[in-house]
Request: fold
Amino acid sequence: MTERLETICIVCPNGCRLVAERKGNAIEVRGNKCPRGIAYAEAEMTAPTRSFTGTVASVFAEMPVVPVRTAGEVPKDKIKEIAAQTREILLKRAYATGEVAEANICGTGVDLIVTADMRKVVGNTEGV
Amino acid sequence: MRYAAIVIGGGPAGMAAACAADGTKKVLIIEREARLGGILKQCVHDGFGVIRFGEKLSGPEYADRFIDEVYSRKNIDVRTLTFVTGIEKRDGYFVVTTTSGKGIVSYEGENLILACGCRERTARQVNIHGTRPAGLMTAGAAQNLVNLQGVNPAGKCVILGSGDIGLIMARRLTLEGSTVIGVYEAKSAPSGLSRNLQQCLYDFDIPLHLKKTVTLVHGRDRVEGVTVADVDDEMRPIAGTEEYIPCDALIVSVGLIPENELAEKLGIITDPKTKGPIVDQYMMTTLDGVYSVGNALHVHDLVDYVSEVAETAGKDAGRRKERATIEVGSRGLGYIVPQKVDVLNQEEYTVYYFRTARETGKAKLTVTVNGVEIYSKKYSALRPPEAERVRIKHSLKAGDELKFVLEEEDDRKA
Reply:
């Protein structure tokens, strides 16, 4: 269990330098400009999460790879496993922004979603 | 037909400017690539839109919202795969000559909005000489290869420079299965946003080496390795500290420079500090009717502010009949935008963006008009890579002296 943590908040571009210390059952956070910093530091001390962003392959020559992200945060230690899994995915039709490329990615309970409108690039195709 | 405004560049700045222009008048967007979106298309990471939409979007998602808006407007025409080859100023309008699949076509516009973005500094601009092997590229080029073309250009790479794109590519290449040996930065402080140091380097245990640079690239057809060396306070390599690192790629992330070839052709005066045009609070340059927005104006940290600035320009296009500007003075700042204020057409609030000249601890910004303080703001710490935005209420007259002074709190005691 982490007793003391010095980190940089990644919630917004301010990049607050946070110091979190365990005081009994509570966690004391300093350096945050807003309440989101407290929540972030508490999560970093107990169960850190991140969002994953990357690409997956498609069958379309006009768009050989398609941007994806997790619809929410996933455990930080799952990120590399998710990255490896995304290399196995192949999209065979034109997805819209927000459509699910793979549900419950790596058992995280979070969906991997497409973040570009493929129909704008490859047309409204049924795929191959 | 004559357009009310011609926007050059269909990235986030150009799209926001076009959408903000008076909806009753015709606007034209000229884009050299096949589709709108600019560099956001290849920025698959998230963090875009936190300020504007209250959501952490990826670059393509942020772009899509504006692309949909552009195509829903009847008064916005879009020409993609079209490249501007010349601009001529006539009496009260501009003639923009383009080349595309349609041949050479000229368009007339009463106003011009330059939204051409910025370019990356290359290895040669930071004194890395020698051969030109495959595997030596800018971070943006690597990002294009990985995120748009699906090609990973690196097996084992070194990244030179700690700019944001370099940091983001360090994470991206790691997740794509490449080994990032380390990020080397000649300055004594990293140049990217703090949160990117955390989430792109520290999260993946990628080492950051400060005060070190690459002095030589080895390999003729393909990068085989690089020599790195310590640098002194003037960033000159120190003899005897060289170290050879085997790798197959060197990715360079050493800064961005606003793209202003067209502005320079028009004789527009640029600010040596921002390397973009000098503008008033509506982003009008020194040439009446010509605006500069987005990273062509100054390199922004956040696309949310690119959109904001571009909208200010778009709304203003064609609105003012005359203007009279005063200079914005400053001390302790790396730069400030706008550099001028039109005192004939003021709104209640004026937005300024600035960067500190150097890293500070506790600091205070004081704004004065003719020596009288009208605004002040305290900062716990400031770093040059992180731009600040302030919204100031003032009512200025011709001849007024407006000045922004940034002082570190300890400076005051001394």
Q: What stands out?
A: The mean pLDDT of chain B is 94. Chain B has three domains: 1-120+256-320, 122-254, 324-414. Residues 59-72 of chain B form the longest helix (14 residues). Helices of chain B lie at 12-20, 59-72, 139-147, 164-175, 194-201, 261-265, 303-316, 409-413.
